[in-house]
Amino acid sequence: MSLHLKLTFLYTGVLALILLVFGSLVYFFLERNLAAETDRAVVRIAEDLLRNTKIVETLSLRQIVLPNVDVFATPNTYIQVVDRHGLVAGQSVNLGGQSMPLSEETLRQVARGVGFYETVMSGSQSLRIYNQPLILDNQVIGVLQVGRSLGPIYSALTRLRFLLLFGSGITLLCTATLSWFMAGQALKPIDRITEAAAAIQQARDLTRRISYIGPRDEVGRLAETFNRMLERLHRAYRELEEAGAVQRRFVSDASHELRTPLTTIRGNVELLKKMGDTDPETRAEALGDIAGEAERMSRLVADLLALARADAGFTPAMGPVDLGALLEEISRQAGILAGDVEFAADGAAALQGTLVNGNTDYLKQLFLILLDNAFLYTGPGGVVRIEGRQQDGWAEVAVCDSGSGIAEEDLPKIFDRFYRADKCRQSSGTGLGLAIARWIVAQHGGAINVESRLGEGSTFTVRLPLA
Predict the structure, then answer these.
(1) Could you report the per-residue pLDDT of 26-38, keeping only the tens digit for each?
(2) Full residue range of the structural domain in which residue 272 is found
(3) Which residues form the signal peptide (predicted)?
(4) Between the chain's N and C termini, which has fewer beta carbons within 10 Å?
(5) In 202-271, at which residue ranges do the beta strands (DSSP E only) sit?
């Protein structure tokens, strides 16, 4: 069953229940009121008759002297006086010579001296009779009966039942029609949303949105929520596509980077197998190449492992780190790597005693990556230096070199994995160092940026929040 039909049945059913309860209450109270009014009417007539009835007592008998009962009778009201023996002493003309029913049980109840009601059948009509005992000297000498036909009441109640049923039927029919129309109007925006969603699904176009023009009611909020969901899905799908492209490029680059040293190692091994010990000098060169490529593969695998841990959501343990002491230790190690490059770490003294919240091992790896790149791309006689300063709640460490610099078009891509500028592709680097450096900085809540001009050197600046 459709929601449209369910709402129609719901509205009609609720109204039907209300009409049933209301009609039943109206019928019940009207029936009770009419019955009570009939009882009050016959009692009033009986009381009026009693006030005008005389009981005459002679020496030998008692005689009931009645007023003109026809004065008190109406077309539907009948009056009858019966003595204690059950003989009719008088009656209204509208009885037409007939007598109102009087049973032995009625006479027994009259003997108790208390007035009472009874409903009896007289021919084809139902009568409501009030029996009022006539008492003289505490002795019942007769009974006054005032009866009223219940036919008009039954006719009125029959007409009322017809009106209630007919009116309720017409009302329910109109309500069902109106409910069907109103439910359709209320659900029309939902139908449009469903059609738009189906079209989006069929076209697989997450850039489309549901067009809704109307108040910001439940349907409006539904359309707005659906559009926000589509926006999130589109963004997630786009990120997934980008991640898939990066992953494919990563696998391709990793395969290429690993294939080159493996090819070199395999070629040298084949050479050694063919040559044997006949040429010690060539053998030494081949072994040197194998060792160099194996070392390069070790660095590549270590870098890949670090990035894999980063992709898996690894978070290093953090604690207070004295950045000045850490840079002093790194400077001692970097002095060995500098070779023919002039290295100056005096600028790091400004960070002595400066605390940051970080991981010592990863921060050391970060700065060694930057220094290693600086030494790698700075020729003999060039200068590499470390500078440090505090500014607005941040500690800044700059690694500056006077090397070959980076072309402007390469700057936005140097932190991408496996990316190396064309002039650097012949170097021994893996293209992963700066990607790892960016991840380490991000884990520490900092930022890294680079300023460089081709042929004038580069400056990498790391900003870390103070502890």
Answers:
(1) 999 999 999 999 8
(2) 219-309
(3) none
(4) N
(5) none
